[in-house]
Amino acid sequence: MKDIKVFGPGCKRCATTEDMVRAAAAKLGIEVSVEKISDMAAIARAGVMSTPGISIDGKLVHAGGLPDPVKLEGWLSA
């Protein structure tokens, strides 16, 4: 199971990013645990300077704007 964290204050892009992560994981048949992090101090500690951000198994893979769906699938498959 992959541990996914979606970082953001709760904006529409952040919610869309979380939905994209869940949909990509389902499409690939990958079990994931998705946690939404909205605490600004925790977001900054994770190194996210622009939201939404995504970390997979503790590694920050994306920050700022919606992720590219193809890249997202690649990150989940790695």
Automatic annotation (TrEMBL):
Please indicate which superkingdom the organism of origin belongs to: Bacteria
Q: Name one Pfam family in it.
A: Thioredoxin_3
What SUPFAM superfamilies is this protein classified in? Thioredoxin-like
Q: Which residues form the Thioredoxin-like fold domain?
A: 3-76
This one is known as Thioredoxin family protein
Q: Which organism was this protein described from? A: Sedimentimonas flavescens
